[in-house]
Write a structure and sequence with these properties.
Distance between the termini: 66 Å
Number of strands: 5
Largest sheet: 3 strands, antiparallel
Radius of gyration: 20 Å
Number of helices: 3
Mean pLDDT: 76
Order of helices and strands: HEEHEHEE
Shape: globular
Length: 110
Amino acid sequence: MLKALKYKYIILLMLFFYFYPSIAKAEEVKYNRKEGRLSINVVNSSLVKLLEKISIKTGVTIKMESEIDRHITVEFNNLPLEEGLKEIIRPNSYAIIFEEHTVEGGKNIP
C-alpha cells in the first residue's frame, strides 16, 4: 500500500515538472525595443495587468478604464507594437487611439 502511494506521488511530480515549462511560459511578454516588435503568450490574464506590463516594457503610456477589465488568452510573436496592441483588444470589441505628444523643444514622442 505504501509502495503504491509512493509511485503515485512520483508520477504526479513527474507530470508537474513535465508541464511546468508551459505553465511558466503562460505569462510571457517580450518587447524588442530596437525593432519595435512585441511577442505575447498569456493564458487567462487580466487585460489591465497585461497592458500595464506592455506599458512598462515598451515605455508607451497606455490609458484605459479599469472597470472594463476581463481575462484574456492571446498569443502572437514578433508583431509591430501597434499591430500587437490591436491583436490584444480586437477580440474584446475595444478601440485603440494612438496620439503623439510633444515635449519641450518640439520633439515628437510617439
